[in-house]
Design a protein that fits this description.
25 strands; binds flavin-adenine dinucleotide; alpha/beta; monooxygenase; N,N-dimethylaniline monooxygenase activity; nine-stranded mixed β-sheet; five-stranded parallel β-sheet; FAD/NAD(P)-binding domain
Length: 591
């Protein structure tokens, strides 16, 4: 693949300057330094999700040791971090990798068409100065998964009768004054459980906040700070400490998710036990926190240091599980007949799913109909040449997957360079059975499932939910296989022979240091996992290891990190990996 250097003709055009786009830029810089690329960002600022959402208390659900990039240690003491810190981290990544000058802000992509004869994408963008056209060999869509323009709000009867203020968290008014007001938050997702403690604390605290939900969500407490991570950093330094914490968290996340799926009843019971302990005596846990579905059929919400439970305990907030009959001038009337008074109603009713930034695409003049395509290795679409997309995990930190996708993407580019290919197209077996690309039952996914690409039934075509599987497939596995079809519009006679035809295929090695994680399908118990969690040797710990706050660490679902901290004065044994069923899930899924 010859490099393109003409202005506005690039090797790679990245769309979106969020976690995915900035990450892709950094991987290109490091692994393919000769490639020309630019990042088109529709908004006036970078950061994507972390710049768009401005509601009080906005924070991650994931720990930043896995939500951060593999190549850049997360240095803050908070493992579950505020949006502003995440935004700072992302922008620092862009600056450190000289990406700032490559980001074209206010460039909203409105169309992309592929021409096989030229082996080029033509990409149209709207800018304040008018339309601009870019041409690029590859498009990397780091456009996230939801519609930026509008969140999802169902039709509420009587909405227009309400005399107070209605707000959607995706469009939080900067000047919204809720001090001393009565607030109802409709919804029970990550945003609702974040908003409630945030809106009831500080000088601008609301008088009272009610979380009104139709169906409960699994909610579990996790510590904001990870004491083990801090100890590892002190002991092994920034880089190594980060790597070790990351490995620990990947392992724990992997196991807790798998075991929750395998032992749903036990997981439910453990979550319930922790909630009963955290909430006021006699609290109706079964009505408000015991969902009708199994753990991880839908998201599991994390509340740092149990802040939501503490707020409910304080009486500043409550949870109501009921159905809305109608909005009224003063609030909401429920199916049960109860009336909730409100000055402000927050509709935390979700996102509108939208892949590829809603960009219409054509291949040689034919429109790409996403439901007719199948996702290959989580990165490409069948039948669509030279298009990479970046969709992270829904059952673990998004960025873990984005990093692996970017690694594979850059390996593919280098492979194509080696053999002078300029086009690659993934072709699915037409007889392969397919199903929706996401199996997740969350409402926002189900609402749009018919507009999404599909997944198949073979490894390369399946939506992977496991980091270990993806390390095998994307980092350590062969770049090519029988599903990839390489061609060259302008063959380079000096290029190497086609490796797929060679007796001994030449492989392009992975660049990144492989992270080994135990294969969860082969180990029965995390305590016997083949790849133990690395811990500092307690005899060599330079500084005392901080022991988690005993008030939050007593219960596994509220423990600072679901791994016990060794007492440096006594510990000789390695860090205990929590019992499979006793661990709250520390991972995040998109709202
Ligand atoms: C409130 C909230 C909290 C979350 N917390 C977590 C968490 O703790 N852990 C986790 O793993 N995940 C979380 N998620 C999911 C989260 O969105 C992802 O983890 C991550 O931020 C996505 O990064 P991204 O770069 O892929 O997409 P985004 O952050 O959505 O960025 C996409 C970028 O593409 C740009 N773009 C889109 N379309 C176009 C176009 N047509 N032209 C030009 N530019 C375009 C957008 O403007 C945006 O800047 C959360 C999501 C939300 C909404």
């Amino acid at each position: 693949m010859t490099s393109i250097t003409t202005a506005d003709q690039l090797d790679v055009l990245i769309i979106g300057a969020g976690i995915s786009g900035i990450g892709a830029g950094r991987y290109l810089r490091t692994h393919c330094p000769d490639k020309t690329f630019a990042i088109l960002e529709g908004r006036e600022a970078s950061g994507g999700t972390w710049d768009l959402f401005r509601y009080p208390g906005i924070r991650s659900d994931s720990d930043l040791h896995t939500f951060g990039y593999e190549f850049k240690p997360w240095r803050d003491k908070d493992a579950i971090a505020d949006g502003s810190k995440i935004l700072g981290y992302l922008r620092e990544t862009a600056t450190e990798n000289d990406l700032d000058e490559l980001i074209r802000f206010n460039h909203r992509v409105i169309g992309a068409s592929w021409d096989s004869a030229e082996a080029l994408w033509t990409v149209e963008a709207e800018t304040p100065e008018g339309a601009r056209t870019f041409r690029a060999r590859w498009v990397f869509a780091g456009t996230g998964y939801y519609n930026y323009d509008e969140g999802y709000t169902p039709v509420f009867p009587g909405r227009d009768d309400f005399e107070g203020t209605i707000v959607h968290p995706q469009h939080w008014p900067e000047d919204l004054d809720y001090a001393g007001k009565k607030v109802v938050v409709i919804g029970s997702g990550a945003t609702a459980v974040t908003l409630i403690p945030a809106m009831t604390s500080g000088p601008s605290a609301a008088a009272h906040v009610t979380m009104l939900q139709r169906t409960p969500t699994f909610v579990t407490a996790l510590p904001r700070e990870d004491k083990i991570a801090q100890a590892l950093r002190r002991t092994f330094g920034e880089e190594r400490g980060y790597r070790l914490t990351r490995r620990k968290n990947i392992t724990v996340q992997h196991w807790t998710w798998r075991l929750a799926r395998r032992f749903p009843d036990q997981t439910r019971a453990l979550l319930r036990k922790a909630q009963v302990k955290a909430l006021p005596e006699g609290y109706d846990v079964d009505t408000h926190f015991n969902p009708p579905y199994n753990p991880w059929d839908q998201r599991l919400c994390v509340v740092p240091d149990g802040d939501l439970f503490k707020t409910i305990r304080s009486g500043k907030a409550d949870v109501v599980t009921d159905r809305i009959e109608t909005f009224t001038p003063n609030g909401i009337r429920l199916a049960s007949g109860q009336e909730l008074e409100a000055d402000i109603i927050v509709t935390e009713t979700g996102l509108n799913l939208r892949l590829f930034g809603g960009i219409p695409m054509t291949v040689d003049g034919a429109p790409v109909h996403f439901p007719d395509t199948v996702v290959y290795r989580g990165l490409m679409l069948s039948g669509v040449p030279n298009l990479a997309l970046s969709i992270g995990y829904t059952n673990a930190s998004w960025t873990l997957k984005v990093g692996l996708l970017c690694e594979y993407f850059t390996r593919l580019l280098r492979y194509m360079d080696t053999y002078a290919y300029d086009t690659v197209r993934a072709e699915a077996d037409p007889a392969m059975p397919t199903r929706p690309v996401l199996d997740f039952a969350a409402g926002y996914i189900q609402r749009s499932i018919d507009e999404m690409p599909r997944q198949g039934d073979r490894e390369q075509w399946q939506t992977s939910t496991g980091f270990a599987d993806d390390v095998r497939l994307l980092r350590n596995g062969s770049v090519y296989d029988e599903y990839l079809h390489f061609t060259s519009a302008a063959a380079d006679p000096t290029a190497a022979a086609d490796p797929t035809a060679a007796a001994e295929p030449v492989e392009v090695p992975a660049v990144a240091e492989p992270v080994e994680v135990p294969d969860p399908t082969t180990a029965a118990n995390p305590t016997t996992a083949t790849e133990p969690v690395e811990v500092p040797d307690p005899t060599t710990v330079a500084e005392p290891v901080e022991v988690p706050d005993p008030t939050t660490a007593a219960d596994p679902t509220t423990a600072a990190e679901p791994v016990e901290v060794p007492d440096p004065t006594t510990a000789a044994a390695p860090v205990e990996v929590p019992e499979p069923t006793a661990v709250a899930e520390p991972v995040e899924v998109p709202a």
